[in-house]
């Protein structure tokens, strides 16, 4: 009890000692600019993730095992928009932290907790796609894959809890950072415990997920390229276009991850291990804002750019009572696709599979290659 009271007193002292110089260094114009950016992130992030969750609830046929992880990402980003961003937005409007030491601790914990859930889910999503492509599993037809996806979701929340509870229990701490209008793990503390926590957080919650994404998406790109080389000349141009689309998707996902989270991790390491004052309060605000933009970028990169999802979104906005018409293809060359309404529309990836591997010269099934095309996008 004494330790908790001492930590609370230290945090209150930290709020008064850190926020004032930072606020003075940032100035009124800087706080206003930060408030505008946070307001845009709040509105766009909430609306984007809300639409994603609404579409998945309206069209259950879209909820494949891979998309279970996308739902988890949108849910965690939505929770950041609800429980975290409004506090920093209000603080930036007023130029100071408004909810006291306990509010600061809650803000730091909730942002770290939901943020790590999203990060881990992104890496697990790449692993799931890699397993589907190179492990030759059938995610849409095997019920066990739904159980595995749900276990992955549960693992992401448990893993995040393991790494975000320690600052509440004495291994480092949550407190004000930058200009005093946001709260996070205390980067500037130079104790052995604080530095060890920052190092572990950087390695296990940022670097390892990034390396896993590089490995999985790199292997997927190699597999898709192999598919493009093996199709017949008739379908070569179409396969190359799809290969380019997969490449664009992978580059967008990895770039979004690096842009949003790597500056935050690098600045944290510099503040903890670099020379005192190497990261100014105003400069430390930029990586924090970039990290929050992930709530806006994730639904766009991972969901809204999918044509099948976009068609469902348009039908939902138009208040249609039926699922959108979907082009149904068949692998036999003598059968043509037909437009029809289906209660659970097949995904765009399934249509892509048939388009890539249906030709007059190709009469045999290619299960491994079908898996590559189906789950790479």
UniProtKB/TrEMBL annotation:
<keyword id="KW-1133">Transmembrane helix</keyword>
<comment type="similarity">
    <text>Belongs to the G-protein coupled receptor 1 family.</text>
</comment>
<feature type="transmembrane region" description="Helical">
    <location>
        <begin position="68"/>
        <end position="89"/>
    </location>
</feature>
<dbReference type="InterPro" id="IPR000276">
    <property type="entry name" value="GPCR_Rhodpsn"/>
</dbReference>
<dbReference type="InterPro" id="IPR050125">
    <property type="entry name" value="GPCR_opsins"/>
</dbReference>
<feature type="transmembrane region" description="Helical">
    <location>
        <begin position="285"/>
        <end position="305"/>
    </location>
</feature>
<protein>
    <recommendedName>
        <fullName>G-protein coupled receptors family 1 profile domain-containing protein</fullName>
    </recommendedName>
</protein>
<feature type="transmembrane region" description="Helical">
    <location>
        <begin position="246"/>
        <end position="273"/>
    </location>
</feature>
<keyword id="KW-0600">Photoreceptor protein</keyword>
<keyword id="KW-0472">Membrane</keyword>
<dbReference type="GO" id="GO:0009881">
    <property type="term" value="F:photoreceptor activity"/>
</dbReference>
<feature type="transmembrane region" description="Helical">
    <location>
        <begin position="194"/>
        <end position="217"/>
    </location>
</feature>
<dbReference type="InterPro" id="IPR002962">
    <property type="entry name" value="Peropsin"/>
</dbReference>
<feature type="transmembrane region" description="Helical">
    <location>
        <begin position="33"/>
        <end position="56"/>
    </location>
</feature>
<keyword id="KW-0812">Transmembrane</keyword>
<dbReference type="InterPro" id="IPR017452">
    <property type="entry name" value="GPCR_Rhodpsn_7TM"/>
</dbReference>
<feature type="transmembrane region" description="Helical">
    <location>
        <begin position="109"/>
        <end position="130"/>
    </location>
</feature>
<dbReference type="InterPro" id="IPR027430">
    <property type="entry name" value="Retinal_BS"/>
</dbReference>
<dbReference type="GO" id="GO:0007602">
    <property type="term" value="P:phototransduction"/>
</dbReference>
<keyword id="KW-0675">Receptor</keyword>
<keyword id="KW-1015">Disulfide bond</keyword>
<dbReference type="GO" id="GO:0007601">
    <property type="term" value="P:visual perception"/>
</dbReference>
<keyword id="KW-0297">G-protein coupled receptor</keyword>
<dbReference type="GO" id="GO:0016020">
    <property type="term" value="C:membrane"/>
</dbReference>
<keyword id="KW-0157">Chromophore</keyword>
<keyword id="KW-0325">Glycoprotein</keyword>
<feature type="transmembrane region" description="Helical">
    <location>
        <begin position="151"/>
        <end position="174"/>
    </location>
</feature>
<keyword id="KW-0681">Retinal protein</keyword>
<dbReference type="Pfam" id="PF00001">
    <property type="entry name" value="7tm_1"/>
</dbReference>
<keyword id="KW-0807">Transducer</keyword>
<dbReference type="GO" id="GO:0004930">
    <property type="term" value="F:G protein-coupled receptor activity"/>
</dbReference>
<feature type="domain" description="G-protein coupled receptors family 1 profile">
    <location>
        <begin position="48"/>
        <end position="302"/>
    </location>
</feature>
<keyword id="KW-0716">Sensory transduction</keyword>
């Amino acid at each position: 009890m004494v330790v908790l009271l001492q930590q609370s007193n230290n945090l209150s002292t930290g709020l008064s000692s850190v926020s004032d110089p930072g606020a003075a260094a940032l100035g009124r114009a800087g706080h206003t600019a930060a408030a505008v950016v946070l307001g845009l992130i709040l509105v766009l992030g909430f609306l984007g993730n809300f639409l994603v969750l609404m579409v998945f609830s309206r069209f259950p046929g879209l909820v494949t095992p891979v998309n279970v992880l996308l739902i988890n990402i949108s849910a965690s980003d939505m929770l950041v928009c609800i429980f975290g961003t409004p506090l920093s937005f209000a603080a930036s409007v007023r130029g100071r932290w408004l909810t006291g030491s306990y509010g600061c601790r809650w803000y730091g914990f909730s942002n770290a907790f939901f943020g790590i859930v999203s990060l881990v889910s992104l890496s697990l999503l790449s692993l799931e796609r890699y397993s589907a492509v190179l492990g030759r599993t059938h995610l849409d037809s095997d019920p066990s894959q739904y159980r595995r996806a749900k276990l992955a979701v549960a693992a992401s929340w448990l893993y995040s809890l393991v790494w975000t509870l320690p600052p509440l229990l004495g291994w480092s701490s949550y407190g004000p950072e930058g200009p005093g209008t946001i709260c996070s793990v205390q980067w500037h503390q130079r104790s052995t415990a604080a530095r060890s926590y920052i190092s572990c957080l950087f390695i296990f919650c940022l670097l390892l997920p990034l390396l896993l994404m590089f490995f999985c998406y790199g292997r997927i790109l190699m597999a898709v390229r192999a598919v493009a080389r093996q199709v017949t000349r008739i379908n070569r141009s179409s396969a190359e276009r799809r290969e380019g689309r997969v490449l664009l998707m992978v580059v967008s996902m990895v770039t979004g991850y690096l842009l949003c989270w790597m500056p935050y991790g690098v600045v944290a390491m510099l503040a903890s291990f670099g020379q005192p004052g190497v990261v100014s309060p105003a400069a430390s605000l930029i990586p924090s804002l970039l990290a929050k933009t992930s709530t806006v970028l994730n639904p766009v990169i991972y969901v809204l750019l999918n044509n099948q999802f976009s068609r469902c979104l348009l039908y939902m906005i138009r208040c249609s009572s039926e699922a959108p018409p979907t082009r149904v293809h068949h692998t036999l060359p003598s059968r043509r696709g037909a437009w029809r309404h289906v209660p659970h529309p097949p995904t765009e990836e399934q249509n892509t599979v048939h388009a890539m591997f249906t030709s007059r010269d190709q009469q045999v099934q290619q299960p491994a290659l079908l898996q590559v095309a189906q789950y790479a996008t």
